[in-house]
Design a protein that fits this description.
The protein is of the alpha/beta class and about 525 residues long. It folds into 3 domains: about 220 residues, Alpha-Beta Complex (2-enoyl-CoA Hydratase, Chain A, domain 1); about 190 residues, 2-enoyl-CoA Hydratase, Chain A, domain 1, CATH 3.90.226; about 35 residues, no CATH class. It is about 40% helix and about 15% strand. The protein is built from 20 helices and 17 strands. Strands 10, 11, 12, 13, 14, 15, 16 and 17 form an 8-stranded mixed sheet that branches. It has a 7-stranded mixed sheet with strand order 1-2-3-4-5-7-9, with helices on both faces. A two-stranded parallel sheet has the order 6-8. The longest helix has 17 residues. It starts with a helix and ends in an 18-residue tail after the last helix. The chain binds hexanoyl-coenzyme A.
Length: about 525
C-alpha cells in the first residue's frame, strides 16, 4: 500500500467510526432537539481546537450477543481542546451507540482523559448522555464507574470539573456529575435519576414521566443537583464558556485577570435599600453596583433563592459573592441555602477566589419542618465552610444581621478579614419584635396598655442593639461605611489581602457536617 492509499484508508476508517450509531440513530437524536456528541464538542470548544484520542477503541464484551456487535468508539468521544484559548480535557458520551451506556472500554477512555486532566492540571468537562452501567457487561461496567468516581474525588479541589447533562442519564451516569463542581442542565433534554420510570413502575407500581422524575427544572429548582439551567444546548455552551472565564485552571493558579471596568451607571447604591427595613429589595442590584461592568454570573439561580452565590470581577479579578436575598423569605438561612452557600465557599477557597459576603437576613428559619429536615446539621455547614476558608474574606452588613445568621455570614468570629457595616445595619441576637416579646414579657403582660408597652420596648431594644455601633464599639466590625463607598472599601480590602497567609493546625482533613 502506498502512503496515499494508507492515508485514504485512515480517512475512511475515521469517517466510519465518527458516524457513531449510524444515520438513523443520529436522526432520532436530532428529532429530540439534541446535537450529536461530536457536534457538542465542536460547538463548545474553540474552532478547530479539538484533538480526539482513542477513536478506534472497541468494546471488549463477550456475553449476550455482544461479541458480534460493533460499538464505534465504544460510545464515548474523548480529547483535548481549548475554550477561550485555554486548554481543557473533554469527553462526550454518544447516545447513538448503545444509549451511551458505560462498559469497560468506554470507562477506560473516560478515565484516560481524567488522568490526563489531573496530570496536566487543566479543567475536565464531561458531557453526559447515557443509560448508565452497560447491562451486558455486568461487574465490568460497575468497576468502570468506580474508577471514575475515585478519580472525580481525587481531582476534586485540584482541577475544575464540569458536568453537562444532555440526555437521559441514569444510575452511575449521575453519580459522577454529582461528584463534580458544576452541573449544567438544559430544558427538555436533561434527565437525571438513579432508577428510571420503568424500574419505579415495576417496583412501586407508580407511573411517572422522566421529566417529572428528574427533568432539568427538577434539578435546578428542587434537588439542587444542577448549578446552571439553560433553554438550549447553545445557551448552555455559552454559560460554560462564561464560567471558564471566571475560574482558574487549577488550584495552583489564580483566575485570569481582565482589564478593570467600572460598574454600569444603574441605580445609585444608596437608593437600592428601602428606608423601611421590612420592605425587600433585590440584592443582585447591590452586587451589580459593585462588580466590573455590573457583570455577575449567578450559580444555582433557581435553587434556594433566599441566598445568592456567583462570580463577578472587581478591578479585573474574580471574586466569589455570597449574599442573602431579602426578596425571598427575607433572605433567611435554612437547610438548602446553607448547603448552597457552604459548597460554594469551599469551591472558592479551594481555587483561590476571594469571597465577598453581603448580609441582610433575620437568622435561621424557625419551625418544625426545618428542625426535622436537619437545620442543625445543614446550618453547621456554612459555619464550617467560612471558618475553614483561608482565602481573603470580606463582609458588608447591609441591614439585618440577627442571631446565628450574624455569626454564620462570615463574621469576624469566623475569621473574616474585613467586616464593614452600612449605617442601616442592625446587629442583634434577634429582631426587636421577638426580643421585646421575650425579654419584656412580664412588663408587657402587666402593663395597662400592653400593646403600647410592647411598642415602647421594641423601640428601646432597637435603640440599644439594632444598629451597627454596639458591634463597632467591640471591634466586631471594622468600619461603618457610607453605601456609596462600598466598592472602594471592598477593593482596598482585597488589595491588602492579596498576600494573605494563614497558619492552620496540622491535620489530614477535617470532618465537616456533610
Ligand atoms: C445497555 C442500554 C442501556 C444500558 C440504554 N441502552 N441503556 N444498553 N445498558 N444501561 C440501550 C437500549 O437498549 C437501546 O438500544 C439504546 O440504548 C437506546 O435506549 P432506549 O431505551 O431506546 O432510549 P430511551 O427510550 O430514550 O430511554 C433511555 C433510558 C432507558 C431512560 C436511559 O434506556 C433506560 O431506562 N435505560 C436503563 C437505565 C438503567 O437502569 N441503567 C442502569 C443503571 S444501574 P438499541 O439497541 O435498542 O438501540 C447503574 C449502576 C451504577 O448505572 C451505579 C453506581 C452507583
Amino acid at each position: 500500500m502506498s502512503l496515499r492509499s494508507n492515508i485514504l484508508d485512515l480517512r475512511k476508517r475515521k469517517k466510519e467510526v465518527q458516524m457513531g450509531g449510524g444515520e438513523k440513530a443520529i436522526e432520532k437524536q436530532a428529532k429530540m432537539g439534541k446535537l450529536t456528541a461530536r457536534e457538542r464538542i465542536i460547538s463548545l470548544l474553540d474552532k478547530n481546537s479539538f484533538h480526539e484520542y482513542d477513536l478506534f477503541v472497541e468494546h471488549s464484551a463477550k456475553d449476550f450477543g455482544m461479541e458480534s456487535k460493533k460499538l464505534h468508539g465504544d460510545g464515548v468521544i474523548i480529547g483535548t481542546g481549548t475554550i477561550k484559548s485555554k486548554p481543557v480535557c473533554i469527553f462526550a458520551q454518544d447516545f447513538t451507540v448503545a444509549g451511551g451506556s458505560l462498559g469497560l472500554m468506554h470507562a477506560r477512555k473516560i478515565t484516560k482523559i481524567m488522568d490526563h486532566a489531573l496530570k496536566m492540571r487543566v479543567p475536565l468537562i464531561g458531557i453526559n448522555d447515557s443509560g448508565g452501567a452497560r447491562i451486558q457487561e455486568g461487574v465490568n461496567s460497575l468497576a468502570g464507574y468506580g474508577e471514575i468516581f475515585f478519580r472525580n474525588t481525587l481531582a476534586s479541589g485540584v482541577i475544575p470539573q464540569i458536568s453537562v447533562i444532555l440526555g437521559p442519564c441514569a444510575g452511575g451516569a449521575v453519580y459522577s456529575p454529582a461528584l463534580t463542581d458544576f452541573v449544567f442542565v438544559v430544558e427538555n433534554i436533561s434527565k437525571m435519576f438513579i432508577t428510571g420510570p420503568s424500574v419505579i413502575k415495576s417496583v412501586l407500581g407508580e407511573e411517572i414521566s422522566m421529566e417529572e422524575l428528574g427533568g432539568a427544572k427538577v434539578h435546578a429548582e428542587i434537588t439542587g443537583n444542577a448549578h446552571f439551567y439553560a433553554q438550549t444546548e447553545a445557551e448552555c455552551f455559552e454559560q460554560i464558556k462564561s464560567l471558564i472565564s471566571y475560574i482558574p485552571r487549577s488550584n495552583a493558579k489564580k483566575a485570569l485577570s481582565y482589564p478593570a471596568k467600572a460598574p454600569l451607571k444603574g441605580k445609585k447604591v444608596e437608593s437600592i435599600v428601602p428606608v423601611d427595613p421590612r420592605i425587600p429589595y433585590d440584592m443582585r442590584d447591590i452586587i451589580k453596583s459593585i462588580t466590573d461592568g455590573s457583570d455577575f454570573l449567578e450559580v444555582m439561580e433557581h435553587f434556594a433563592p433566599n441566598i445568592i452565590i456567583g462570580f463577578g470581577r472587581m478591578d479585573g479579578e474574580t471574586v466569589g459573592f455570597v449574599a442573602n436575598q431579602p426578596m425571598v423569605l427575607a433572605g433567611v438561612l435554612d437547610c438548602d441555602s446553607s448547603d448552597k452557600a457552604a459548597r460554594f465557599i469551599r469551591y472558592c477557597d479551594a481555587f483561590n477566589i476571594p469571597i465577598v459576603t453581603l448580609e441582610d437576613m433575620p437568622g435561621y428559619l424557625p419551625g418544625v419542618d426545618q428542625e426535622h429536615a436537619g437545620v442543625i446539621r445543614h446550618g453547621a455547614k456554612i459555619l464550617y465552610a467560612y471558618s475553614e476558608a483561608t482565602v481573603p474574606k470580606v463582609t458588608v452588613i447591609i441591614r439585618k444581621a440577627y442571631g446565628g445568621g450574624y455569626i454564620a455570614m462570615n463574621s469576624r468570629h469566623l475569621r473574616a478579614d474585613f467586616v464593614f457595616a452600612w449605617p442601616t445595619a442592625e446587629i442583634a441576637v434577634m429582631g426587636p419584635e421577638g426580643a421585646a416579646n421575650i425579654v419584656f414579657r412580664k412588663e408587657i403582660a402587666e402593663a395597662e396598655n400592653p400593646e403600647e408597652m410592647r411598642q415602647e420596648k421594641i423601640q428601646e431594644y432597637k435603640e440599644k442593639f439594632a444598629n451597627p455601633y454596639v458591634a463597632a464599639a467591640q471591634g466586631y466590625i471594622d468600619e461603618v461605611i457610607e453605601p456609596k463607598d462600598t466598592r472602594a472599601r471592598i477593593l482596598h480590602a482585597l488589595q491588602v489581602s492579596e498576600n494573605k497567609s494563614v497558619f492552620l493546625p496540622n491535620k489530614k482533613h477535617g470532618i465537616p457536617p456533610f
